[in-house]
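step=encode ok
step=design start
structure_in=
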């Protein structure tokens, strides 16, 4: 069976102005040695186009710490690939607006994790104000902007109080995702667990009354009564149908390692490196991404093995499962429980 690549999350640098307490890639502010050069990045962009990739999300580290980011973006958008930049907003400046328009950016997503005291606690003092200002500047400048909030035990309880602030920011979407105990989050021992049912209930209460799309990411769920509209798409076509890592999506890190998903930040998930093999060869390798491509329902464990939705859900997010309890085929925090 052939697998068609649809989306890619590409970490273009690990350099960052932060060292967030829950950074999944364990960023400490420094870029890696021997990160992909501009020329190598442009070549990867060409390969993504050849493979039919339609959408790329650029992440870091911090994307804006790489001075050639406009050239990388334009190498993708110039080939008809939609590009979103995900940023902490700290380094964003009004002059970036013209550059973003010039390279044809689709949208920018800002990480904002809750009220000021909570957001700054996990990132750094002053980061909340900079992020909010970035959102407002982008919106005023005509760049579509969304929010991503990474939820843990503390900030998941702040969603209701934070909502009024979010309503006034001019965003087109707000995605809620679960903090995973990987990278810095694991090292810092962050209390990452929260009640998924309460988060889903929050979305259900407000998704039809807010001036933006409100939804949950693929590591929260699964298949409660409103599943078909909880993923931020009111059409009901975006419901969770299982982990897509290595099936329709892939991740590339700043030194060229390829994984099925950039949330699978463990060396055991590396399938190859773009410096050693063409991206298409890695993607089409019959032994690659075996955790999904060779998945069978008989691999399910725990409650997932007997769940009536197992044929659709297939145990949820592989990355979250791996980092929480090491069982790829058993969702540890399913809201159906």
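sequence_out=
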């Amino acid at each position: 069976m052939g697998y068609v690549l649809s989306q890619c999350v590409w970490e273009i640098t690990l350099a960052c102005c932060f060292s967030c307490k829950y950074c999944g890639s364990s960023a400490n502010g420094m870029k890696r040695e021997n990160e992909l050069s501009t020329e190598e990045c442009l070549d990867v962009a060409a390969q993504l186009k050849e493979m039919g990739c339609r959408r790329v999300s650029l992440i870091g580290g911090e994307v804006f710490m790489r001075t050639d980011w406009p050239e990388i973006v334009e190498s993708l958008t110039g080939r008809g690939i939609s590009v979103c930049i995900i940023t902490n907003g700290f380094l964003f400046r009004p002059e970036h607006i013209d550059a973003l328009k010039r390279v044809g950016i689709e949208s920018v997503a800002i990480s904002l994790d809750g009220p000021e005291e909570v957001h700054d606690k996990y990132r750094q003092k002053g980061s909340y104000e900079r992020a909010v200002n970035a959102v407002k500047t982008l919106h005023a400048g005509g760049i579509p902007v969304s929010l991503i909030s990474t939820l843990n035990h503390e900030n998941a309880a702040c969603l209701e109080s934070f909502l009024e602030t979010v309503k006034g920011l001019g965003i087109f979407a707000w995605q809620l995702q679960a903090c995973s105990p990987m990278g810095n989050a694991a090292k810092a021992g962050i209390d990452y667990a929260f009640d998924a049912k309460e988060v889903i209930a929050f979305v259900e209460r407000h998704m039809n009354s807010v001036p933006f799309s409100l939804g949950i990411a693929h590591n929260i769920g699964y298949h409660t009564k409103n599943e078909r509209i909880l993923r931020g798409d009111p059409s009901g076509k975006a419901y969770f149908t299982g982990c897509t890592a290595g099936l329709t999506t892939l991740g590339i890190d700043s030194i060229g390692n390829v994984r099925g998903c950039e949330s699978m930040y463990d060396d055991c998930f590396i399938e190859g490196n773009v410096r050693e093999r063409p991206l298409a060869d890695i993607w089409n390798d019959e032994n690659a991404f075996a955790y999904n491509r060779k998945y069978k329902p008989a691999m399910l464990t725990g409650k997932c093995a007997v769940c009536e939705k197992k044929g659709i859900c297939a145990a949820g997010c592989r990355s979250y499962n791996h980092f929480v309890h090491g069982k790829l085929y058993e969702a540890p925090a399913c809201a159906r429980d």
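step=design ok
step=annotate ok -> The longest strand covers residues 145-151.
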